[in-house]
């Protein structure tokens, strides 16, 4: 009669390795590695499940979070290195790109107005730099209390190098005049400084891409820091969402005061939208009156006292 064969080892989840079990596993060729893994499971039951793959960036908390969610400055969208793909932290390419972006942002944050303008004119940080005719830096008195932020240059802006020209620009001028502002004024209380989220025109006036907004953000951020406006009027969905780091529709962002670095932000529709939807002019008028009210109620004494 044949001798009974030894029971099959229940190795991975065996709570305890007896000398006999160790001997069997040695005979089966599992060796020390098997033993070590079994002990590891026994000693550290809270470790990652053995059935989970090593790299699960989409579902595990070690996946790098997009910078748009983690970066405090609301003007800065996600870093291009982490924005589009949940690559593991150890991937070398994103780390290098992020360091380059950080160094560029730090350099921009130290620029004065002339240096910032010059840097914008030669910028090639995103692909729009190779398709534009010229960068549109911004216009208006750098002592203005009001700042207007739009989306991106259109065809006419790209040709002239100025923001908000053409039919949309004329409508903006009319809107500003209605509340006592003038883009050509030099007196701080009447002047406005106008800039866009993107300094270069997207081909065909397509929507800005996240990587383009991300690369251009330090320029707008520095403009805001240099200007220190008393109020920012964000015109259009992209301007509002980029400034506020929000994905909410413009209908939800209107009629309230937001803040960017302590500066009040009021949201309204873009003049180009109004050209297509003139029925919404009444809403914009209400937004402008609201913005003026925010401006005057924020610092009424200073508004009268300062030149
Ligand atoms: S859009 Fe902004 S980041 Fe891109 S090339 Fe123009 S200035 Fe540079």
Please tell me what the overall shape is: globular
Question: Can you list the ligands bound to this structure?
Answer: iron/sulfur cluster
Please compute the radius of gyration using only Cα atoms: 29 Å
Give the topology string: H per helix, E per strand.
HHHHHHEEHHEHEHHEEHHH
CATH class identity of the domain at 94-300: Alpha Beta
CATH topology of the domain at 94-300: Uracil-DNA Glycosylase, subunit E
Average per-residue pLDDT, rounded, comes to 75
Residue stretches low in confidence (pLDDT < 50, at least 5 long) are 1-18, 20-96, 301-307
Q: Would you kindly provide a written description of the structure presented here, covering whatever features stand out?
A:
With 307 residues, the chain is an alpha/beta fold. It has a domain at 94-300: 3-Layer(aba) Sandwich (Uracil-DNA Glycosylase, subunit E). It is 44% helix and 8% strand. It contains 14 helices and 6 strands. The chain has a 6-stranded mixed beta sheet with strand order 1-3-2-4-6-5, with helices on both faces. The longest helix is centred in the C-terminal third of the chain and has 18 residues, at 210-227. The chain is globular and about 45 Å long. 35% of the residues are buried. Mean pLDDT is 75; it is low at 1-18, 20-96 and 301-307. It binds iron/sulfur cluster. The site of iron/sulfur cluster has 15 residues, from helix 9. Iron/sulfur cluster binds next to helix 9.
């Amino acid at each position: 009669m044949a001798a009974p064969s030894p029971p099959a080892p229940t190795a991975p989840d065996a709570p305890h390795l007896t000398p006999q079990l160790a001997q069997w596993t040695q005979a089966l060729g599992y060796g020390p590695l098997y033993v070590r893994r079994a002990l590891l499971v026994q000693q550290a039951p809270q470790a990652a499940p053995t059935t989970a793959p090593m790299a699960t960036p989409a579902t595990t908390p070690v996946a790098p979070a997009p910078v748009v969610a983690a970066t405090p400055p609301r003007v800065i969208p996600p870093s291009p290195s982490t924005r589009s793909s949940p690559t593991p932290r150890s991937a070398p390419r994103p780390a290098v790109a992020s360091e380059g972006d950080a160094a560029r942002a730090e350099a921009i944050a130290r620029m004065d107005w002339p240096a910032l303008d010059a840097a914008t004119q030669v910028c090639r940080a995103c692909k729009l730099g190779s398709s534009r005719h010229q960068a549109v830096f911004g216009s208006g008195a750098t002592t203005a209390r009001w700042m207007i932020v739009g989306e991106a240059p259109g065809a006419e802006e790209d040709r002239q190098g100025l923001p908000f020209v053409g039919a949309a620009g004329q409508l903006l001028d009319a809107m500003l005049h209605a509340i006592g502002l003038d883009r050509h004024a030099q007196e701080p209380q009447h002047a406005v400084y106008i800039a866009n989220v993107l300094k270069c025109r997207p081909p065909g006036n397509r929507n800005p891409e996240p990587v383009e907004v991300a690369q251009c953000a330090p320029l707008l951020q520095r403009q805001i820091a240099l200007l220190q406006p008393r109020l920012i009027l964000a015109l259009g969905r992209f301007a509002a969402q980029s400034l506020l780091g929000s994905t909410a529709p413009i209908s939800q962002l209107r009629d309230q005061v937001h803040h960017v670095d302590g500066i009040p932000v009021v949201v309204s529709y873009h003049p180009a939208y109004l050209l297509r939807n003139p029925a919404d002019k009444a809403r914009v008028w209400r937004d402008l009156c609201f913005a003026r009210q925010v401006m005057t109620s924020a610092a009424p004494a200073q508004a009268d006292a300062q030149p």
